[in-house]
Write a structure and sequence with these properties.
Blueprint (H helix, E strand, L loop, with lengths): L10 E9 L2 E7 L2 E6 L3 H7 L4 E8 L7 H12 L3 E3 L4 H20 L13 H25 L5 E5 L6 H8 L4 E5 L7 H4 L5 H9 L3 E4 L2 H15 L2 E3 L2 E4 L2 E7 L6 H7 L3 H13 L4 E8 L6 H14 L7 E8 L6 H21 L7 E4 L5 H10 L2 E4 L9 H7 L7 E5 L5 H4 L4 E3 L4 H12 L3 H17 L2 H24 L1
Parallel strand pairs: 1-4, 1-6, 4-5, 6-7, 7-8, 8-11, 12-13, 12-15, 13-14, 15-16, 16-17
Antiparallel strand pairs: 2-3, 9-10, 10-11
The protein binds 6-O-phosphono-alpha-D-glucopyranose.
6-O-phosphono-alpha-D-glucopyranose binds next to loops.
């Protein structure tokens, strides 16, 4: 017997994420300008032809007035985006508070907030309440736009309650949830006061996805140890209902990066950069200015390398692009001053009148400038303390087919599981080891660089973002089909 094919042509995909793929800037009472952001998720879904994707999320701005909301909704509709309006208090408690001060550090093994980050238990509770309230607001917007046959794909730690609320609205809705961060060991997750509620809310989904097999395994262990449910090779079972749990490693739109290198503007940038850093090896870091990225540790390792290798002074430069992020959260503000202090000290110590060892930029670069920078780099340093995947490492590899530079990669980034064979893997907490890997990378023979690059390049070009999205959604469809078949039998 054959499984009936229930998929309609060009199925609608509702992608729900905290942040919409466009950023909105208010130009007047009823006028908005929108800019598409070039994040991984956006390019992944732009390339998926099989589905008609619509986005639901927060536009990143507070719009208290109805006229403004109406105008923004209209402008966003042209980009197939649907806004969820969150007021300032919710943003403070849900986004800055529960998401970025509690879940984000915990999922990256940095633990729960200490006294100075969380004054009272009451504030934890009110942040959790705001988290649930925000998730309900997202659910209401999804429900309003849902049509029979749609699939709903919820993203990330901001929306762990969304599967539960959506299923409460409509148990037939096909709901998938994907986590872009690591899911920590169950021993870490169990420290969270709301540990069980969060797990149960996620389990309401039909399919739960992670970047790596380890994260999926941690999630299943948390469900078995904390909730006492049964873990199977397929997922988690609760009273005969299976929530499928699996790994779906994301990729990038590698073609977009490779094509960009031929654009005249990028070629011009490359020429300028080569001239500017002639006679020096270029090392590069590109990170959001976030504590999980290990920027202070990376810079201290570079200092150690300079200390131990005086012959390299003035022959190597570290370019660190640190993109400001979540600047309302005190932890992030502290990190910014800490990084500035270390960079200043090292440049004072090793700089000369004509050159400094570290160029540190607190801003993002446009896509073309970034591609040029990737292309001229000799050694990329991706030394996150923890990272769900880390696509900077993929982007670097995609832009290196001419130069064949070396990637130094943290063993605690999800990408270590896919680029481990070609990269030099390091423990970012071990500054001596990272300093030694810089030495190894700068002195590596051309043959070894070529061999390592080839391994990585093949992976990056063969495991694209489009393929990631298609695999997840088709598996989500199958999961639901199977569930329906079980009911029919
Ligand atoms: C990580 C998260 C994303 C988030 C992004 C930027 O990659 O997994 O969900 O959108 O960081 O952070 P922000 O807080 O600015 O949205």
């Amino acid at each position: 017997w054959e499984r009936p094919d229930v998929r309609p042509f060009r199925q609608r995909l509702l992608v729900v994420a905290n942040r919409l793929p466009v950023s909105a800037v208010r130009r007047g009472e009823e006028s908005w300008s929108l800019e598409i952001s070039a994040g991984g998720l956006v390019s992944a879904l732009l390339g998926v032809k099989e589905f008609e994707a619509r986005w639901i999320g927060w536009a990143g701005v507070n719009v208290p007035d109805e006229a403004g909301q109406r105008a923004l909704t209209k402008a966003l509709a042209e980009k197939r985006c649907i806004p969820v309006f969150l007021d300032e208090d919710i943003v403070h408690q849900y986004y800055n508070g529960y998401c970025n001060n509690i879940l984000w550090p915990l999922f990256h093994y940095l633990g729960l907030p200490q006294e100075d980050r969380l004054a009272t238990t009451r504030s934890f509770q009110s942040q959790f309440a705001a988290y649930k309230k925000a998730n309900k607001m997202f659910a209401a917007v999804v429900n309003e736009h849902y049509e029979e046959g749609d699939v709903v794909w919820c993203h990330d730690y901001h929306l762990m309650f969304l599967p539960k609320y959506l299923k409460e609205y409509n148990s037939k809705m096909k709901v998938g949830w994907f986590l872009h961060t690591p899911f920590p060991s169950s021993e870490i997750h169990r420290t969270l006061p709301s540990r069980s509620e969060l797990l149960r809310a996620v389990l309401a989904a039909d399919l739960v996805g992670f970047h790596t097999y380890d994260y999926a395994r941690h999630f299943v262990s948390a469900c078995t140890r904390i909730l006492g449910l049964e873990g199977t090779p397929e997922g988690v079972e609760d009273q005969g209902r299976l929530t499928r749990v699996a790994a779906f490693p994301i990729g990038i739109d590698s073609e977009r990066f490779i094509r960009a290198l031929d654009v005249p503007q990028v070629q011009e940038h490359i020429r300028e950069l080569k001239e500017r850093f002639a006679g020096r090896k270029v090392m590069l870091g590109v990170d959001r200015l976030d504590m999980i990225k290990g920027i202070p540790q990376k810079i201290l390792a570079f200092e150690k390398f300079l200390e131990e290798n005086p012959t390299w002074h003035e022959k190597v430069v570290l370019l660190q692009i640190a993109v400001p992020t979540r600047t309302d959260v005190p932890e992030y503000q502290k990190l910014t001053s800490q990084v500035h202090e270390i960079v200043g000290r090292i440049n004072g110590r090793f700089g000369t009148l004509t050159a400094v060892p570290i160029h540190h930029l607190d801003r993002s670069l446009d896509f073309h400038a970034l591609c040029a920078l990737y292309a001229v780099t000799d050694v990329a340093l991706v030394t996150s303390l923890r990272d769900g995947m880390n696509l900077v490492s993929y982007e670097f590899v995609a832009c290196q087919d001419a130069k064949k530079g070396v990637l130094i990669l943290s063993e605690f980034a999800g990408a270590a599981q896919s680029l481990g064979a070609g990269a030099i893997l390091v423990n970012p907490w071990n500054i001596t080891e990272v300093a030694a890997s810089i030495d190894q990378a700068l002195n590596m023979s051309a043959e070894e660089r070529e061999k390592r690059h080839q391994l990585n390049f093949e992976h990056v070009t063969n495991h694209t973002a489009q393929e990631w999205a298609e695999t997840f959604v088709s598996e989500l469809n199958d999961t639901v089909v199977e569930a329906q078949l079980r009911i029919r039998q």
